[in-house]
Amino acid sequence: MGPYGSVGGGMGWGGWLAMGLVLVIFWALVITGIVLLVRSVGHRHGVAREPAGTTAALHILDDRFARGEIDAEEYSRRRQLLSPDWRRSI
Prior knowledge:
By secondary structure, the protein is an all-alpha fold. The chain has 4 helices and no strands.
């Protein structure tokens, strides 16, 4: 007899099967945790997004008005053209 009480070595097929399942479950949990962590860090909750072009154009328009390059009438006209509500009515 061997040191573990039997000739084949201690753990039977049931032990190897259980160990394999535990290993698969462990790695599945680790990978799921990493995916959830990456998603939560990369995603900002509750932030409404406008199209990037519209936002950039409005910032440029605001800067031009602040620097005095355009007057209030021109600013209002262009801002109305760039607003999302105006584009929906077309």
